[in-house]
UniProtKB/TrEMBL annotation:
The keyword Transcription regulation applies. It comes from Micromonospora citrea. It comes from the Bacteria. InterPro entries: Class_I_gatase-like (IPR029062), DJ-1/PfpI (IPR002818), Homeodomain-like_sf (IPR009057), HTH_AraC (IPR018060), HTH_AraC-typ_CS (IPR018062), INH-QAR (IPR052158). This is Transcriptional regulator GlxA family, contains an amidase domain and an AraC-type DNA-binding HTH domain.
Amino acid sequence: MSVGTVAVVVTEQIGLPSWDLYELAIPCTVFGKPQPDLVDPWYELRLCGMDPGPADRPAESGIAMRCRYGLDDLVGADTVIVPSVPDACVEDGAPLPAELVTALRRAYDSGARMVSLCTGAFALAEAGLLDGRRATAHWMHTAQLAARYPKVLVDDSVLYVDDGDVLTSAGLTAGLDLCLHLVRRDLGAHVANQLARRMVVPAHRPGGQAQFIDLSVPVRDDAGLAPVLEWARARLDRPLTVEDLARRASMSPRTFYRRLHAATGTTPVQWLLQQRLARAQDLLETTGLSMEKIGELSGLGTANNLRHHFLKQVGVSPREYRRAFSRTVRQPHVA
């Protein structure tokens, strides 16, 4: 008997988009390749399609998949993984297939551990499996997830959420983080660490997906605010107050607060902090400047203040962020 049966749901068998192949390949790689020197037998992997059997029509785009198993085979699996759902179900609000939702509920009721990667969270949410639970998805889709399923406690700052029998991950490589976490839960840290080494990836990454979010992008634009916001972005290294911004916009502080909140979904103080963090991120990625200098140029103050805000808002230290995202050859640090 294997250490567990892992059933992976393939929601699009004809014309599977190439970008969804990555999330599908992750559980196939982690759970589908035997590791007899670590644990024998390994997991038993099942690819479960919406319509099992050979594809009977060509794929106009993407890749055609042939799955031996169907949705009925989710029942009885130890772990069920939904790597993604069709784009139309996320972007256009198209309904998820009723047979998929029913199969997921039946699998959960039969005792399966339920897992989603990236947009697969929409399927678990539609099945009611995330109600009242903390969950995540790719940060580009978490706002849609929260709006569509208000009973779900959406957290866009983490790589994955382990809520016991239901687990969710952010997009793309965060799915690998979660799959390695499952191996760690099932078989221990040594096996998970050895598997990560073989895949040439970290066994555990610091921080969460907050470090990948573009902090400089507003939710909506307000043409009347654009000039003052650009003015402020050009002066992030200087002390700026709400009164300064309101005066520049020829508004009262209260009116400016209201207009900015409507345009960005945040307060003037938080907006300034986000812009300064975005400036610091850019400097960490593209220069070899010292932490003190980056704190000064971004308006975040000392190196200690820079570190404090990074740990709180981004989830990693500035040095860890630089190691992960630097796009330049290191230059001598400038005092």
